């Protein structure tokens, strides 16, 4: 008995929690927990309700479409056909179950026909706000949000502000069309930047921003935000005589609607799996956010038989991608000193999995941002890890504070060398001014050997050790390491093999292009682009060192800050001393004269790009060959591209080139032939 009581209490507690999250998510367009955490709670409740049917209620979040219209500022409108949610899954096994369920229902109603063929349409699941838009004789008359699925809010005026939604259709038909209102990623970023600058709270993600915008009372604001709309459902498709979902979508395109253009026909579960794998990566190249894929039965005549629960149709399911955003606890903030002495806060987090990897630390950028986002130690925070990007702290969840959170206090002294820090430009940057600070030294060394600079093997561990042992005091010391070979080989955990490799890569680095060696010096503000530009303009470092500020300013692309920085660099005795050492060691600081005699007819005036995993060449080698033979390298596929060299698993670039039709595709062997 006691047990039962506990179960009842637990069920009620989870329901209450879910109601609270629904309120924040649908009414206020903000989240207190991540979607995965929400979905896990919902699944837990579903399980408890299934095991204890006596506690089921019609109003449970497991049975109703989220979002209400109770206190709405908009006029309420009853939907002709309910606007349902979608059941969701995060794995392929559940997808197979879905396919099995669909076939079982269809087989059940057609005894004897055991092998019903079911085709699926696979679409992108846009992460935005659902709307239903009504047209009468081709004219937009009303647009309604999903609301609680039965009753939504009239947002016609706001929808009128969205350029990609046609106000008049290309045919004079009366239809109801459903789609998703999204905020494109670029718009989202610029909106948040503006809000941060004006002290307003940032939106945690594009969906929240789209929701907040669409339910604005002031249509003019909606107009400024550049929302976009993609449609994915024609409510009257059967009445209009369409047989498949995909046909109806193509018809919508013909009427003037924007769709994602993704409606892959999949005949088997294997087809579905292949497309899912493809989109797991490819979705990062879209300019709007997707949180998964939607898989729909393509044959419309099966919809009635399959039916729907109170919450979702049985002819569709969503396959959700691993979450990019999750919440976790901010345990502490540490301060990191970079190569220029800039001191930045780093979030120390309770370990959490995001996009398939464990995250323990995340960037907080600078103290100003900590203040603007109002982040405190002990806060629950949203963090995000997009493809291959360092995890970022998005915002704190202030609603979850219990009063024990602590202010983040910036240090007064350098956490590494203890010298007093100085403030630059107000509060934005704290800086260690000690020229001998170990952290700065280490940062400088790591920058010097990084891939885009001198490309010397050996990571931060080796640099740290060599600094500690006194082998590295300035960047030119790398070129004296060979003199200490015997000593180095005796060090623990290194061994002669890796020392040998290290010394070879140091030797190799001497031959690098002047643009790279210039970049490697770490002159403030001189990144890869300016390294290239300044090397071309000056031809060699002696010329560059002699340039006056006015001469530097005369170079197209060089501004005041850069000119001052470059000029100052070469007027510093220490810098010049290290530079002389590098030159004496044989590091290249001049542009090689291009020998026009080596140009090949097949290459002159032609453009090249390599993609995929290359077997015979390094990517840089291909670029060097192209340049040497008189061709030009490109970074993306466009009409201007003449040759695409493809390795293994080429991906989207090859697809694009094939679509263009004008690009010649070469294997590595064919490329090699061309150079002969
Ligand atoms: N973090 C939170 O606090 C919180 C709270 C509530 C809900 N949520 C999240 O929202 C989900 C529930 O929201 P929901 O009911 O809007 O469901 P959903 O967003 O998971 O799926 C249904 C919706 O998908 C949209 N959609 C996008 N592309 C589509 C396409 N091609 N075809 C059909 N529909 C498409 C439609 O708007 C549809 O209403 C939960 O599973 C959870 O992940 C999170
Ligand atoms: Zn310091």
Helix coverage percent? 25-40%
CATH class of the largest domain: Alpha Beta
* Coarse structural class: alpha+beta
Please identify which CATH superfamily of the largest domain we are dealing with: DNA ligase/mRNA capping enzyme
In the predicted model, the low-confidence regions spanning at least 5 consecutive residues are none
Indicate the proportion of strand residues.
Answer: 15-25%
Number of helices: 24
Overall average pLDDT: 91
List the ligand species. nicotinamide-adenine-dinucleotide, zinc ion
Annotated CATH topology of the largest domain: D-amino Acid Aminotransferase, Chain A, domain 1
| Major sheet characteristics | 7 strands, antiparallel
For the termini, the CA-CA separation is 86 Å
Number of strands: 22
Gyration radius, in Å: 30 Å
Oligomer: single chain
Shape: globular
Give the number of domains: 5
CATH architecture assignment name of the largest domain = 2-Layer Sandwich
Describe the fold and architecture.
With 676 residues, the protein is an alpha+beta fold. It folds into five domains: 62 residues, Helix Hairpins, CATH 1.10.287.610; 233 residues, DNA ligase/mRNA capping enzyme (D-amino Acid Aminotransferase, Chain A, domain 1, 2-Layer Sandwich), CATH 3.30.470; 106 residues, OB fold (Dihydrolipoamide Acetyltransferase, E2P); 148 residues, 5' to 3' exonuclease, C-terminal subdomain (DNA polymerase, domain 1), CATH 1.10.150.20; 79 residues, BRCT domain (Rossmann fold, 3-Layer(aba) Sandwich), CATH 3.40.50.10190. 37% of the residues lie in helices and 19% in strands. The protein has 24 helices and 22 strands. The strands form five sheets. Strands 12, 13, 14, 15, 16, 17 and 18 form a seven-stranded antiparallel β-sheet that branches. α23 links the parallel β21 and β22. α1 runs antiparallel to α2, α12 packs across α13 and α16 crosses α17. The chain is globular. It starts with a helix and ends with a helix. Bound molecules: nicotinamide-adenine-dinucleotide and zinc ion (ZN). Belongs to the NAD-dependent DNA ligase family. LigA subfamily. GO terms for molecular function: DNA ligase (NAD+) activity. Keywords: Coiled coil, DNA damage, DNA repair, DNA replication, Ligase, Magnesium, Manganese, Metal-binding, NAD, Zinc. This is DNA ligase.
